[in-house]
Amino acid sequence: MTKRAVLAGGCFWGMQDLIRKLPGVIATRVGYTGGDVPNATYRNHGTHAEGIEIVFDPETTSYRRILEFFFQIHDPTTKNRQGNDVGMSYRSAIYYTDDEQKRIAEDTIADVDASGLWPGKAVTEVEPVGDFWEAEPEHQDYLERYPTGYTCLFVRPNWVLPRRSAAE
Q: Is 94 exposed, middle or buried (0-12, 13-18, 19+ CB in 10 A)?
């Protein structure tokens, strides 16, 4: 049985390119989530964030592990911004599918804040998952098709959340 995660952390191209490579990630797709416009598109997505939907195998990886990597590849301390990308579309958000995901999200954020590794406190929103509007085909798998294309996301080796026994 697979599980689903929905995250937003800046440019969805960069998130998809990095997260799809994690062990246990079965599928990813980019789209628009957490906002107010039905049938959102790149040109008309209202208050939606650029997001990623992740289908993963919980026998291979945990939701917590996905969130730890999510915090390693984007800056959760900048409100509505990732690098040169500015606006609500680029906010940091976790859209939970159930109470367990909400608990893990809040716990992970508390650990990020307590670690002192990030440049400030996380401003990551934690909200129930809503509609996920799949982005246009040209946005799916973008950096696989254009390896030198734009991204504001990268793996930060100094932002590895320390392990603790209660985390898993």
A: buried
Neighbours of 92 (CB within 10 A): 25
Please check whether residue 11 is in contact with residue 89, taking contact to mean a CB–CB distance below 8 angstroms.
Answer: no
As a whole number of angstroms, the distance between CA 8 and CA 27 comes to: 16
Q: How confident is the model at residue 146 (pLDDT cuts 50, 70, 90)?
A: confident
> Are the C-beta atoms of residues 121 and 127 closer than 8 Å to each other?
no
| Model-wide pTM > 0.70 | yes
Q: Which residues contact 157 (CB under 8 A, 6 or more apart)?
A: none
Residue ranges in 21-158 assigned as alpha helix (H):
63-73, 99-115, 142-145
Active-site residue, from 11, 30, 93, 135: 11
- Give 40-65 pLDDT, tens digit per residue: 988 889 899 999 999 999 999 999 99
11 labelled catalytic: yes
